[in-house]
Structure formats: structure tokens, C-alpha cells
Amino acid sequence: MEPRIGGRPTAHIIEYLRKPQHPKQQHYPFSCQRSFFYFSSRYALADGIRALGLRRGDTVLLPAYNCGIEIEPFHYFGLRTEFYQIDKELKVSLPDLREKIKGNIAALLVTHYLGFPQDTEQIKAICNDHGVFLIEDCAHALLGSHNGADLGTYGDIAVFSVLKTLPVPNGGVLVVNNNNFRWAHQQLEPSRFSSAFYVADLLRQKTLPRGGLNVALESGAYGAFYQGMNIAKRFIAAARKISNSRGLSLARPDSYDFREDLIPWGTSKASERIIAGTDMSRVKKTRRDNFGKYLAWFLAERPAGITLPFTELPEGVCPLFFPLIFEEEGKREIVHARMKERGITTYPWWDRFHPAVPWDEYPDAVYLKKHLFGLPVHQDLEPAMIERVLTEFADLMQH
Predict the structure, then answer these.
(1) For 115, phi and psi rounded to 5 degrees?
(2) 293, 169: one domain
(3) N or C: which end of the chain has fewer CB within 10 A?
(4) Are 150 and 326 in contact (CB under 8 A)?
(5) Each residue's pLDDT tens digit, 149-173
(6) Which residues have C-beta within 8 Å of that of residue 56, sequence separation ≥ 6?
(7) Ordered DSSP codes for 220-279
């Protein structure tokens, strides 16, 4: 049996349960005294909005290329959202930003897409010149740095998504860098069922080496665990309808919903154990090494109909995945489906269009929404697995 290549890293089930040997993680942002922990990054952002003192009716400037869920916390607090250009190389258009920020803007959100830093020094200077708060969106950029400084240290606040990089069932971080603001977050423990269900979902998609009896047994056990949790989920959903309850136990940190009830939730004990026990340097090195293998192949082979938004891996970047752009619309969905049939998870990235964005004004953002595709680089992948991804990808591109 060929190895299954999942889209996210996972841990052994025991690691979600046992007490870590190193109770305090020393890597930023976990070591920062003014870091606060949440169920996911959208709720970290929601509390960050409150920490900055933004008020109903204030205007915030957001990147036109976005997931969509990061818009929801601003709308929840009654803020107006305007947008600025992102080019096809996933870079902030500084001329457009300078023009847009001249208005009555209270805060600017800047996103380090896929772990690659924006021109943070220039953007910070623009914000300072106009008295605008800078919010660093580091959801893709955990463990990343730029010019020797950790990403997340440039903004007045910064938000991180832990679950995009580490095998946790939930986790977002808010860092308050601006010393003019005081903030406290008395976090509530998330639903244990929600955490357990997400762990089961992670494990059923676990990246596994080439098959053998032990691998087959492990895969079967994880599949059974997920099926059992899924049955329990259906019972809870049915009971929720009968009782008309809020059903918070079914909440997922990666859903597209924004629910105010989840703002007080912190990270689970399972997530804390994984964070504390993870060798962050190894995670970053592995992801960079895997990215480098893809990059070398694509630069050598130069497959037709594909462009690369990044043709080098700058020092300090901890990549989320390896991005490429299919020039033909619809091609990425075909490749995604066929790679999935072969047991390989890929990413047709950010294909949803939030209604708040005037998409006709941002053709580059629309292009990225329809064409950007990703291959996995996460820390569970061994060199042979990267070779298999490339072999399968090359085969598909020839047919």
C-alpha cells in the first residue's frame, strides 16, 4: 500500500494525553509575556480589536486577498471595512496602500501569506505616519522571522493560528505589543468533545509510511476512533435540535463560522501538551527542507501552465505549504481531486468570496482565489513522501 499523505501534521494519540516533559515552550510567541491563548485565531483577533479600543463606526483597512473569516470579527464589532490591493506575487501594493490609508482609517491588517513576510518596515512606517494601528495577521506565519525579528513583533497587536502549523485540536494566539494597552484574557477551557473530535479527525487523515501490518492496524484504529466520535457527534446534534441548545460542543476551530460565544474559549489541555512538547526548531527546519525539495524540482522541470509566486525561500520563513499558480482556470480543482484519489491531500486555496469585498475592483485577488494551489510541506513528511508527491503530480500534468 502506498503511504497516505495527509494535509496536516499529527501526533501520536498518547501525546495528546500525557504530561509533557517541558511544561514551558521557549519559542515565540508562546514565550511572550503578553501572549494570550484562544480557541482559534479569529477569536484572538476579536479580542485584539477590543484591546486596541476600536469602536463601532471606525474604519479598518484589510487586504483584498483574504480567507473571509478574518473580516467577521470586524463586522461583529460594527467596524467598517475597506480594502487594498494584493498583487499576484502575494505582496502588498504599497502605492495603493499609501493612497487608501489617507482616509479616516483607524487600523490596518497586514497578512504574511503562507509564511512569507510583507515589507513590514515600510508598512509600519506608513502606519506611524498616519497614526494608524497595525494588526499583523500571522495565521500562516507561526515560527517565522524577517530581518532577524520574529513575525508578530512589528504590529501593535499580532494574531497567530497554531493549528495551521502544529498538530493541535485548537489554538490561536494574540500578542499585544503596544505597551499603551493593557489586556487580560481569563480563558475558558474549550469543550472536551470538540477537542477530542478534532483529534480524531486529524488522526484519520494521518500521514502514514509505506504499508505493513502495524501501519494497517494503526490506520484501522484511527478510523474506528473517528467513526465512534462521528456517531457521538450525530447524537449530540440531534439532542441539540430537540433542546434548542447552542451546541458549542460541536464547534470546530477551522469552520467558516464566527460565534461570539467562543471568544472566551482558550486552548485545550491537549493543545497545551502538544505545544509544550514540540521541538519548534525541527518543525521549521523540516518544513523549509521540504519546501526546498519542491522548489528545486519546479525550477528544474518548469512544467508548462504553472507559475511560482515565490522562486526562493528567504531566511527565516517557515512555509505553510508550497504554492503554485495554475494559469488555466479550473485546473487546480481537477488536480486536487485526482491527487486525492491517489491518497495525497493538496490545497485549492481560499476559494470562497466574502460578500463584503468589491471583487470587481481587485482582479489580482480574484485571480489568486481561482488559481492558487498548494502542495504539503508539513513536518510529518519524509523525503520519500515528497518524491512521491512530485511523481504523482508530474504524471497528472502529462495527462
Answers:
(1) 95, -5
(2) no
(3) C
(4) no
(5) 999 999 999 999 999 999 999 999 9
(6) 77, 78, 79
(7) HHHHHHHHHHHHHHHHHHHHHHHHT---GGG--TTSS---GGGTTB---HHHHHHHHH--
CATH of the domain at 161: 3.40.640.10
Residue 235 domain flag: no
Q: CA–CA distance from 383 to each of 212, 215, 290, 339 (Å)? A: 19, 19, 7, 18
Domain-terminating residue out of 176, 203, 220: 176
Q: Are residues 48 and 170 in the same domain?
A: yes
Q: Please count the CA atoms within 13 angstroms of the CA of 296 that sit on its side-chain side.
A: 8
Quote the CA–CA distance of 348 and 271 in Å, as a whole number.
27
- Which H or E element spans position 161? strand 157-161
Q: 101 — alpha (psi -120 to 50), left (phi > 0) or beta?
A: alpha
Our count of domains for the chain comes to 2
Q: The domain spanning residue 290 has which CATH number? A: 3.90.1150.10
- The last residue of one of the domains, among 176, 194, 209, is 176
Distances (CA, A) of 88 to 65, 308, 362, 363, 375: 10, 10, 11, 9, 18
Nearest to 32 by CA among 20, 43, 15, 44: 44
Range of the domain at 290: 280-397
Is 267 contained in some domain? no
Write down the pTM of the prediction. 0.92
